[in-house]
Amino acid sequence: MLTTIAIKNYRSLRDITITLTRLNLVTGANGSGKSNLYKALRLLAQTAQGGVVNALAQEGGLNSSFWAGPETLSRAMLAGEVPIEPTVRTAVKRLKLGFASDEFSYLIELGLPLPDATTLFGLDPQIKRESIWVGDAYRPSTVLVERRAALVKSRIETNNTAAWQTLNIHMQHSDSIFTELADPERTPEVIRLRDSIRAWRFYDHFRSDIDAPARKPQLGTRTPVLHHDGRDLASAIQTIFEVGDRETFDSALSDAFPGAHVVIEYESNGMLSLKFHQQGLLRPLKAAELSDGTLRYLLLIAALLTPRPPELMVLNEPETSLHPDLLPALSRLIVKASERCQLWVVSHANRLINSLNQFEDCNLIELDKQFGQTTIIGQDLLSKPSWRWSQHS
Fold first, then answer.
1. SS3 label, residue 298
2. pLDDT per residue over 321-350, tens digit each?
3. 154 forms bridges with which residues in the sheet?
4. End-to-end CA distance of the chain
5. The whole model's pTM is what?
6. Which listed residue, of 46, 68, 111, 202, carries a Cα 20 to 30 Å from 333's Cα?
7. Given phi > 0 = left and psi -120 to 50 = alpha, else beta, which region is 378?
8. Mean pLDDT throughout 231-236?
9. Are the C-beta atoms of residues 305 and 243 closer than 8 Å to each other?
10. Which residues, 6 or more positions from 81, have their beta carbon under 8 angstroms from its beta carbon?
11. Distance between CA atoms of residues 143 and 61, nearest Å
C-alpha cells in the first residue's frame, strides 16, 4: 500500500507531499489541481511501462509540464507585499515524482538534455535519476538501487558488509530501470516494484454514449479485470458471478436499484449480452437500452468488485452521468471495495464527498490553489509527511 506520494515542479504541483491511507478522497474547487494530481499519478504508473518520457512529451514536453511560477515564493510575495516576479534559478530544472509504500519506495527525476546542435530532439525529456529504497524517507543507508544519468548501481551484501555493484554504465536517458534492469537475481526489488506499479488500475470516464463498447454484445471470455473503456462488461460481470463475490454484486445493485438484478445470456458464436431486470418492467432491458447513469453504475460495480483486486485503483470523477440519488450507494460500494485494495477517488460531487467523508477511514485530501500553486487545506509543517528527495533535502 502506498503511504506517501510526492510531486515537485509538475504543473501547479510546485512541491506537494501527501499522506495516503486505504481510501483517499481528492477534492477541491475547479482549477485547484485535482486533474494535475491525477495526471502525476498516471505519469508515475508510466515509469513501469517504459512510457514516462513519451507520456511527458505528449503533454507538450518538460517545459510545458513544468511549474510555470518562480522557483521560490518569498514571504513578501506570499504576503502580497511585492508582485510575483521571476527569480534567478539556482537549482537544476527537474520534474520529480515519487512515492513511499509499506514495502519499497521510489523516485524519478526528469530534466532536459544538454544543448546539442547535432540533434533535432534537444527538448526530449530525459531520466536523470531513479532510486529504490526501503522506508518512507530517502536515506543513503536504505537505498537498494540508485540510477544517476547513465550509471546504475545496486547494493549487495558481502560477508555481512554492504557494497555497491555497477549494473549499467550506458543507460539510455529515455529508458527506466524498470524496463532495462529487471533481473530476478541481481535486482529482485526492481521486478517486485515494477509488477506492483503495472497492476495499478485507472478508470477515467467510462463511455456511455450510444456507441459505447459496453452497450454491444461481446465475445465471452473469462475477465477478472474490467477493461478501462468497459468493452468487456458482460464478461466481467459473469466472471464475478462465477469466481468472485456475487452476493456483494447483487447487494450493490439492489442498493442503487431496489428489486433489480442482472442476467448474462449466452448468444450464438460465443457472444455474451447483458440483460437488466428492473422492478415493474415486463421484460429485461438490453445494454443498448440502459440510461447512461445505469450503464455507468454497472461499470463501476464491475470495476470495484473485480475478483483480482490491484494494489491501487484510481477512480477519476466516478459521479459523471450518475443521478445524485445514486451517490450514497456508490460511496458504500467504494468503501466496501477499499477493504480489498487501496482506492484513490477524485471527485467534485458534494453528495459523494459528504457520503464518503462520513466513514472514519476516509482520508480527505482537499486541494486549494494559492499564487498558482496547489496546496492541501489544513496541512502544515507538523502534519506534512516525512519525505526526502536526497540525503540533503
1. helix
2. 999 999 999 999 999 999 999 999 999 999
3. 145, 165
4. 24
5. 0.91
6. 46
7. left
8. 96
9. no
10. none
11. 30
